[in-house]
Specification:
Blueprint: E1 6-9, E2 15-17, E3 22-27, E4 30-36, E5 58-64, E6 71-77, E7 80-85, E8 90-94, E9 100-104, E10 111-116, E11 122-127, E12 133-137, E13 143-147, E14 159-164, E15 170-175, E16 180-184, E17 190-194, E18 202-207, E19 213-218, E20 223-227, E21 233-237
Antiparallel strand pairs: 1-6, 2-3, 3-4, 4-5, 6-7, 7-8, 8-9, 10-11, 11-12, 12-13, 14-15, 15-16, 16-17, 18-19, 19-20, 20-21
Length: about 250
């Protein structure tokens, strides 16, 4: 998805951008642009402070405080950032100024995952416990479709990740219901359900650049690569028993 100008951040991770000069991080109910230690500005000849090994010194460039609960998902597209949190909202704001652009309140639980469409016109959002996923217009906030494929199973159906294919045609969603599901981004029609053997709650999902394969992590730590059109497992990276919380 990187070549589409859209980036997704899992909680407690930092995305490095602007040629390595800055990043973004989420903590509590605020999100901050950060200038990373070790980079220098074209306007300054002063050396950057030296940090002990393993410690990152950061200078906030911009902090967004629109959320009233911890921020749990962040996604970037060009000059806009979408962020979701424990206040059940997704907020779209200007990445350069922090000015709020839109607030979406269609979910009734913690927003756990979100992803921009490659053209930046839509956002797909998943939440905890509800099992449904919504696609909405990034400019107006209008709900375009609701996907309920993960609600077919009893138990915890929390959505753990959503990922828009680079070609814009499909969405992959992973859940604690032990599945990764692929569906049509325009109609919401279910196309394929992938489950591991033995079944395991799924964590993150990421498309290959050519939209033909998906790498999905199980909560037991293994990463599964499968064909998006058939669900055939192409490879498995064994885990160590600990959840894998991010893939890219």
């Amino acid at each position: 998805m990187k070549d589409q100008g859209a980036h997704r951040l899992s909680r407690r991770t930092i995305l490095i951008g602007l040629a390595g000069l800055a990043g973004v991080t989420a903590a509590g109910g605020a999100i901050a642009w950060l200038k990373l230690a070790g980079s220098t500005s074209a306007q300054s000849n002063h050396p950057q402070p030296t940090a002990p090994q393993g410690v990152i010194v950061t200078t906030p460039l911009l902090t967004y405080r629109g959320h009233h609960a911890p921020v749990t998902a962040v996604a970037w597209h060009d000059t806009r950032i979408a962020s979701g949190g424990g206040d059940h909202t997704v907020q779209v704001w200007n990445a350069n100024t922090g000015a709020p652009l839109l607030t979406y309140s269609g979910h009734t639980d913690i927003v756990t995952a979100l992803s921009w469409s490659p053209d930046g016109r839509k956002i797909v959002v998943g939440a905890a416990h509800t099992g449904f996923i919504q696609v909405w217009d990034a400019s107006t906030g209008a709900t375009l479709l609701t996907y309920r494929g993960h609600q077919q199973k009893t138990g915890d159906t929390s959505i753990t990740d959503v990922a828009w294919s680079p070609n814009g045609q499909w969405i992959a969603s992973s859940s604690l219901d032990d599945s990764v599901q692929i569906w049509d981004s325009a109609t919401g029609a279910a196309l394929l359900t992938y489950r591991t053997d033995p079944p395991a709650a799924m964590g993150t999902a990421e498309w290959s650049p050519d939209s033909t394969r998906i790498a999905a992590s199980g909560m037991a730590g293994a990463v599964h690569i499968f064909a998006a059109s058939t669900g055939t497992t192409l490879g498995v990276l064994p885990g160590n028993g600990s959840p894998t919380i991010a893939s890219q």
